[in-house]
Batch of 3 targets.
Target 1
Amino acid sequence: MTQSLVVVPPSNARAASWMAGWLTLMLVLLVAGREATRELSVFQIMEMRSVIGLFLLYPLIHRNGGLASMKTARPLAHIGRNVVHYGAQYGWFLALTLIPLAQVVAIEFTMPIWTALLAVSFLGERLNVWKILAIVLGLVGVLIIVQPGAAQVSPGQLIMVLAAVGFGAAIVMVKSLTRTDSVVVIIFWMLVIQSLIGLIPALYLWHAPSAHVWPWIIVIAFCGTYSHYCFTQAMRYADATVVVPMDFLRVPLSAAVGWLIYSERLDAATMAGAALILAGNLLNLRRS
């Protein structure tokens, strides 16, 4: 029998706290992913992340009643969400090989627009002036930071647009799932389904990881698993149109990590864009 879901009262403050955890883990994942991809294929990294992530998730599974409590009444919804999410991830990585990174990031952060539109259409959420302002300021901030060129539309750009739409759809599906399933159940099925989806390509491209890369794989598995736990918790406490704009902060924070660890340039445009992103999120949180 599916574990009963405790309904939590809305709280933007709690949603922001869980999003802080998401952002921290995603920044660590950024570094670990860059180091691991020096040696292993993306398919293999994603597969190892999902399989190891199941073991890392087990303490929460055990605390929530064990494997028997991981049953769900909505298996098709979980499959649909994870097929879309896995495809969006693949499109994101494919776009990295076809277009400049600045364009990938700029197009990726159109995701809140698709999320907001889909949430309004399928979840009955409402767009108010503050949510719209947070999205607009966030997009402007991202464009200032990445400064995308005005090139003609290429296959890579179209792929990235589809990936951004896919990410937005996956987020809306997660929000829908939080209404009936616990966070642990959602993450459990994400790891199981995505392990099955990526098994064949991962085995085809498999290379034995060296001792150097194993710690990075463990970090990727931990951050990949618990970042989604934090994000899904945030979605329980606030609408998708409130939660998703907070993710804009990942862009300036990623730039800061690149500057500190890889000596990548951190310029005035990054700081100006970060200020706009932060202003939009603060207005949204105070007025929602």
Target 2
Amino acid sequence: MSSNGKNEVYCSTGTVVGRVVGFDYTVIERELPRVVDASNADGIELVMLPFFYDKLDDVAATISRSGLRVAVVHADKDIGSLLSYGGENNARESMRLWRVNCEFSASLGVDRVVLHLWGNSESDTNFKYNLSFLPRMLDVADEYGIRVMIENIPCVALDPLSRWHEIDELVGERCGFIYDVRFGQLHGQNPDIQHSDYMESGRIEHMHISDFGGGFREFSAIRPILHPNEGKVDFPALFRSLRDARYGGTLTLESPVMSERGLNIDKLIRTLSWLTESISAL
């Protein structure tokens, strides 16, 4: 939350940069300033993509020219996936990428980074192994002044809220949590998370907003990622819980507007405006 007491709202670069549009990150400069301005949002959340690694200087220059504030960096999702695959080489590469992500975030003046601690088909099947790397990852983040926030991404062995409990037992308040309502809906955990100690105590520091149209643990319905009110997430209940908990964190819209025909910028502005208006009314 900003100093004026406002819950800040951001636009994820993942809404407009992805495979279907050839990973064209120049859209950050061309389109996102208009989106952020028209919707009264407060900046962007930069999603790190493997495509970026040999272009980091140009990515940074593009962001600088846009004039947009990068409030959060979403670290490369491959970091957690590599750990989940197991093996010394994968672990070494995961830690190397984590350092690159932290260093790049700090170079942009960003002090909050989203971490997927597990991922892909192996997911949380060997969670204790993934978790064993977390203290070292937090040490690296500390070197760069980064606050790490771990997301409730899909699980196949257990469930995200249980995994949060294990993380909390190991490292406590050294990290925060990010609540993704789409994944909460997938696991049937939205009510539990919304009324959990994590929400009440402020341990949930950031949120990812999109929608989910599938059923309980229907992993095949994770994509396409829906816009709010296109799926089954109960957003009125969500906003009531945020108001009751006096939620002090921030939110990012993650619903893409990419297709083979290009970008639907008008839809992005409409959805992001809905989110900023809904949060301002709390």
Target 3
Amino acid sequence: MEDKIVRATAANGGIRLIAVSVTESLKEAKERHKLSFLTTAILGRSFSAALLLASSMKIMHGRVTFRIRSDGPLKGLLVDAGRDGKVRGYVGNPNLELDLIKNKDGKFNFNFKEAVGTGYLNVIRDNGTGDPFTSTVELINGTIAEDLASYLLHSEQTPSVVFIGEKFQKSDVICSGGLLAQVLPKKETDPLLISLLEERCREMKSFSEELHGTNNLLSVIKKIFPDIDDLSISENARSQEIEFKCRCSRERSLGAMKMLDKKELRDILEKDKKAELVCEFCKEKYVITFDEIKAMIDS
């Protein structure tokens, strides 16, 4: 399944449904950051969460920063996602791996709670004009899905159900994505809609299996709401491509170097004869040469 976002509505426009697949983007991040199985799962879930949030922004250049600050061995994470479908991110400890834990069904799952620990989820929405909107909530359990639902309830007062999951096969991730179902703001006081949302979502047994079993995100949505409002959203607005894309560049690296004072630049020249800047989001390396640093000092 190619990476994309699919949008739909149900209950005569009273419920918004958004599904996202980030498998290929996550594979690239896994390769760039040398992620373990555990951190691959956590970063993939955070990709989905940030993109689900960004997808509801009205301005195409709008962006969402999804950050976890906590005391767990993961050492936090940061994801940057755009309304345009571009996503990038990193975790503090990419090599972290913990023993799997057995759930009530006898299946083994990643130990997200121990990895993330206790702390806070911080979300920044930036429309590109004025001050960004920032909100922070306490983490629930580090599974990302419940943490995102908690954020939506407490910070945006929007009743929501969130499914996020992934599936591995041997050493590779074969699917990763998420689904967000929300009662829209004008309808949030309707108890029947909230009950309908809860009832339908209880019928979803395993989101990861549903995601893996199809190459059509709309069919995943229809598993919950088979009676979606097909004509409520145009085809162009309904589907959008997703890709791992970093905004770093050599020009930005040069700009960062120019912010150093002359003493720091001279120290770099004397000790190393050059500078190497590595982007945290994508691990791209930029080499600033001796002559370029000397020109910065002279200017």
